[in-house]
Design goal:
The chain is mainly alpha-helical and 365 residues long. It has one domain. It has 13 helices and two strands.
Length: 365
C-alpha cells in the first residue's frame, strides 16, 4: 500500500524512497517483527485457553519432550498474520508474484490449521487425511504454477523462460520442460511445504533455517528482478520478482518475532499452520525466480529431514529394519544422546553454510 507514495514524489521528493525495494523490504522486516512481538503474548494466552492440553506429544519420542505437554500450537497464526498485514502495507500490490505467493501461503496455512485443529481437539497425531491434504496442496500449487507461467515474460534471449528450469553454475543453460514444467513446479512447492513441516520438531529448529533461506532468496529475488544486476551476474532476468524481496523481508521479521516466544523452552509451537505455509512460500519464490535447484541447496537441511523420513519408511517396509534410530533425522541425533539445544544450533549452522553455498552459485558462472 505504501508503495503508491512513490508516485507523489514529484510533490514531496522524500517520498521517492518508497520506490526502492530495499527500503520497503527493510521496513517490512521491522514492521512484521514489531507486530508479532507485540501481539504474541495475547495470541499465546488465547491459544492456551482454547487448546487446553495443547499439542499432543509422541509417547515414542525422546523422553525430554514429555515436559512440553500443555504447550499450545498453531503459532503459525502469529507469523501469517504479521506476514500478510505487512506485505499488504509495504509490497507493491500491482505485482502478480506477490499475490501468487500470498495465495499459496494462506492456502497451505489453512490446510495446516485444519490439521492442527484435528490433532488438538482429538488429542491425536492423526490429523488431516494424508491423501486429502496432499491433494489440496497440489491443487493450490497447480493454480499458482499456472499463474507463474502466464506472468513470466519471455524474451528474445530466453524465449522459453516461463517453462524452463535453469541450471546453477552453468551460465545460460536452461532445460525447457514445456507443459511438464507445471507438474515439476508443483512438486517443488508441495515438497518444500512438507519438508519444512517435517523439520519443525524441536524448539526453534525450523524457524531459523526458514529465515536463513528467506534472506538468501530475498537477495536472489532482488537480483533476478533487476535487469542490470541479473545481466552482470549472468542469471536470468525475471521481471517483477524483485518485489518478492519485500515478502521475504516480512517473513524474516515475523520469524524473528515468533522466535522470541519459540526459543527453548518454547511458549508456543509453530504447528502445521506455520510450517506448511512457510515452506510453500519459499517453494513458490524459488519457482518464480527460476532457482528451483538452488533452493534444493539453500534448503538442503529441509531436504535432508524429508529424505530421512523417506529412507526410514522405505527401509522398514522393504527389510523390516530402520536406518535411523528415529525419523526425522533430528530425533535420530537426540536418540544418540545430543541435547536438544545441540541439535538445534548445529542444524542452524548447517543451514547457514548451505545458504552461503547457494549464494555462491550466483557468481560461479
Amino acid at each position: 500500500m505504501f508503495a503508491f507514495l512513490a508516485d507523489l514524489s514529484g510533490v514531496l521528493s522524500p517520498l521517492n524512497v518508497f520506490r526502492y525495494i530495499t527500503f520497503r523490504a527493510a521496513a517490512a522486516t521491522i514492521t512484521a517483527m514489531f507486530l508479532v512481538f507485540m501481539f504474541g503474548p495475547a495470541v499465546i494466552a488465547s491459544l492456551r485457553i482454547r487448546q487446553g492440553k495443547g499439542q499432543p506429544i509422541r509417547e515414542d519420542g525422546p523422553e525430554s519432550h514429555l515436559v512440553k505437554r500443555g504447550t499450545p500450537t498453531m503459532g503459525g497464526l502469529m507469523i501469517l498474520a504479521g506476514l500478510v498485514v505487512t506485505v499488504l502495507l509495504w509490497a507493491n500490490l500491482k505485482s502478480p508474484y506477490v499475490w501468487i505467493t500470498l495465495f499459496v501461503t494462506v492456502g497451505f496455512g489453512l490446510i495446516g490449521f485444519y490439521d492442527d485443529y484435528l490433532k488438538v481437539t482429538k488429542q491425536s497425531h492423526k490429523g488431516f487425511s494424508g491423501r486429502a491434504r496432499l491433494l489440496l496442496e497440489f491443487a493450490i500449487a497447480a493454480v499458482a504454477c499456472y499463474a507463474i507461467t502466464k506472468f513470466t515474460l519471455n524474451s528474445q534471449e530466453v524465449p522459453n523462460l516461463a517453462t524452463s528450469v535453469t541450471i546453477p553454475v552453468f551460465k545460460g543453460v536452461l532445460i525447457n520442460l514445456g507443459w511438464f514444467f507445471i507438474p515439476f513446479a508443483m512438486f517443488v512447492i508441495v515438497a518444500a511445504g512438507n519438508a519444512v513441516n517435517l523439520t519443525d520438531g524441536l524448539d526453534g529448529l525450523a524457524i531459523v533455517p526458514v529465515m536463513v533461506a528467506s534472506a538468501t532468496f530475498g537477495v536472489i529475488a532482488y537480483l533476478s528482478g533487476h535487469a542490470i544486476f541479473s545481466s552482470y551476474l549472468g542469471i536470468n532476468f525475471v521481471q517483477g520478482t524483485g518485489e518478492l524481496a519485500v515478502v521475504l523481508g516480512a517473513l524474516i521479521g515475523a520469524g524473528l518475532g515468533f522466535l522470541w516466544y519459540n526459543a527453548p523452552p518454547a511458549q508456543i509451537f509453530m504447528g502445521d499452520t506455520g510450517s506448511l505455509a512457510l515452506g510453500g512460500l519459499l517453494g513458490t519464490v524459488a519457482v518464480a525466480t527460476k532457482h528451483e535447484i538452488v533452493f534444493a541447496i539453500v534448503g538442503g537441511l529441509f531436504v535432508l529431514e524429508a529424505l530421512s523420513v523417506v529412507i526410514q519408511v522405505a527401509s522398514f517396509r522393504l527389510t523390516g529394519k530402520r536406518v535411523f534410530r528415529m525419523a526425522p533425522i533430528h530425533h535420530h541425533f537426540e536418540k544418540k544422546g545430543w541435547k536438544e539445544p545441540q541439535v538445534v544450533i548445529r542444524f542452524w549452522i548447517v543451514s547457514v553454510v548451505l545458504a552461503l553455498v547457494g549464494l555462491a552459485t550466483l557468481k560461479l558462472r
